[in-house]
Design goal:
single chain; about 575 residues; alpha+beta; FAD/NAD(P)-binding domain; Polyamine Oxidase, Chain A, domain 2; 4 domains; six-stranded mixed beta sheet; 15 helices
């Protein structure tokens, strides 16, 4: 979800500003969407914002402010070898339909990539039984049938939007149980425990506490991209490094957290120019701007939106922020000197954990006293030549948030005990252990978004709505002072890195279109548009035809030629 999403895009808030013009309070990949289009502006010779212009291929007045020390978060477990990702690590939908995949291919980052689809499961129960591969395949197929039935429900006309995915699953499971009359008590327990494990996996995918809180509309709104899940060493860090290469290093300001955004005002700069927006940084510095692109995580907005913006955001946007779904998914990395698991199963291996005393009907209620029950599996990171011997565990919900508070000793002790309990093997204590802490991170306060039973897809659009919609007739910069991007603002691809990227591109395009249209409209009306001189000089528009405000060719972006009448 949020590099953002997270496990798919665990978003990180950082501040980015285009000095004296466009400011961004953003997380890395959302920023890149805007970066990408502004970089394209150098070729188009168009520029949507004041004082940030492409002159002879050089981008001026570009500054990036990031409260973290790096835009891409990696963790070094074993010097020189085991580098693992804290946030996003997979391209979800490895095809040319995915803009992240397109960029990764363009930059040559897929040479060492491997597709996670086709993972082999080794599933153990808490009574030290290893379930047969045929049984595992049967129940996984059964769960996929349940999921498909829920998806069909979400596509039917008139379905109840307040209905949860959890309730849809339980309806189907109740029907299936009627055919289990010949099953032994143990077999039934294993089936129900396995289905409950798969529901825990869905909670991880959606960063939710339980599926009863996730709307069935999640399936009708989210667009799945074919191609499987692709991973490549340090993929997202390399991707961002390639994208920001064109930005002068002296313009990258790290550890520059934003305290508050003042908008809809008139703030005077040293040269006497007035701007509608002031960004107040925690170090006391003030940055003036015409436009702000905010891609702070939904978790941050839930906690800080009322104090972060002045004046306050409109009630409908605050209502959307409050009711939209958002939660925590964390990773648990365990490194061993020697593997205790079977290494001959296949290139992609997962160790599944089934509790025979759990069923989908008991619900995934928070159980902090036994938080480890929420861990449903461990991936074996492959290849060993790259990672060493590392297991990657997944956990979500309140248990993940509680886990973040534990000491390394408490984690190592409990996780070792659980692995011994399930596998029946003398599992050693890990030589290194690391957990992500997305909930504890004050700039994210969770991982990524979903559609809750209290929200709708329309609320995603409400969150993405720029402010204000209207400005003075001759002052186009008064419009669109606050623009919103980030995975949570993309209706079709929320929770993903490609959703974050596309949302940044969307807002960059919004500003391009805004200034292009504004200048031409005012020119046609006989007014001299009051915009910064740099924009006046750099907006390459054709307003010669009174019925067409600006000219767009059907040729690719890089080959377009624009002319100007002023």
């Amino acid at each position: 979800m949020p590099l953002n999403g997270g496990i798919r895009n665990a978003a990180r808030i950082s501040g980015i500003d285009l000095h004296d013009s466009l400011a961004m309070v953003a997380c890395p990949l959302d920023v890149e969407g805007a970066l990408l289009l502004v970089i394209d502006l150098r070729v188009d010779k168009r520029c949507p914002q004041s004082n940030v212009c492409a002159v002879n291929g050089i981008l001026h007045h570009w500054e990036v402010c990031d409260p973290r020390k790096a835009v891409c978060s990696l963790r070094l477990l074993l010097p020189g070898k085991s580098v693992v990702a804290e946030g996003a690590q997979y391209i979800h939908g490895a095809s040319m339909k995915n803009p992240i995949f397109q960029l990764a291919k363009e930059f040559g980052l897929l040479e060492q990539a491997h597709n996670k689809s086709g993972t082999e499961w080794s599933v153990f129960t808490n009574t030290q039984k290893e379930l047969s591969s045929d049984f595992v395949k049967q129940i996984r197929n059964l769960f996929h049938y349940i999921l498909s039935r829920a998806y069909i429900q979400s596509q039917e006309k008139g379905f109840t939007k307040a209905k949860s995915i959890g309730s849809a699953y339980l309806e189907e499971i109740k029907k299936l149980i009627t055919n289990w009359t010949g099953d032994s008590t143990n077999l039934r327990s294993q089936k129900l425990g396995f289905l409950n494990m798969m529901m825990k996996e869905d909670c991880v995918d959606m960063a939710s506490n339980d599926l009863n809180g996730v709307s069935l509309q999640e399936y009708s709104e989210y667009d799945y991209i074919e191609g499987g899940n692709l991973n490549s060493p340090r993929l997202f860090c390399k991707l961002i490094s390639n994208l920001v290469e064109v930005i002068p290093r002296e313009k990258l300001l790290l550890e520059k957290p934003v305290k508050q955004i003042l908008w809809n005002g008139s703030f005077k700069s040293e040269d006497g120019t007035h701007y509608p927006v002031r960004v107040v940084c925690e170090d006391g510095e003030h940055i003036l701007a015409d436009h702000i692109i905010v891609t702070a995580s939904l978790g941050y907005l839930k906690a800080e939106a009322k104090a972060f913006f002045h004046p306050s955001l409109p009630e409908e946007k605050l209502h959307a922020i409050k009711n939209m779904g958002y939660g925590t998914t964390d990773k648990v990395y365990l490194e061993y000197e020697v593997p205790f698991w079977d290494q001959d199963i296949g290139p992609e291996q997962r160790i599944g954990l089934v509790w025979e005393d759990e069923t989908p009907f008991s619900g995934l209620k928070p159980n902090l006293a036994e938080w480890w029950r929420r861990l449903y599996s461990f991936d074996v990171l492959q290849p060993a030549e790259r990672y060493g011997h590392i297991l990657l565990g997944w956990i979500s919900g309140r248990e993940a948030e509680f886990m973040e508070t534990l000491t390394e000793e408490e984690l190592a002790s409990n996780l070792t005990r659980i692995l011994r309990q399930f596998t029946g093997k003398p599992v050693p204590r890990p030589k290194n252990l690391y957990i992500t802490k997305w909930f504890s991170n004050s700039y994210t306060q969770g991982s990524y978004s979903h559609i809750s039973i209290n929200s709708t897809g329309d609320m995603i659009d409400t969150l993405a709505e720029p402010l204000p919609q209207e400005g003075g007739d001759r002052y186009p910069s008064k419009k669109l002072q606050l623009l919103f991007a980030g995975e949570a603002t993309h209706r079709s691809y929320h929770s993903t890195t490609h959703g974050a990227l596309l949302s940044g591109q969307r807002e960059a395009d919004r500003l391009i279109d805004h200034y292009s249209t504004s200048v031409c409209e005012l020119t046609e009306a006989g007014h001299a548009p009051k915009i910064r001189n740099e924009v006046r000089n750099m907006l390459m528009l054709s307003c010669q035809d009174s019925t067409q405000y600006w000219w767009k060719t059907s040729t690719p972006r890089k080959n377009r030629v624009f002319t100007t009448t002023n």
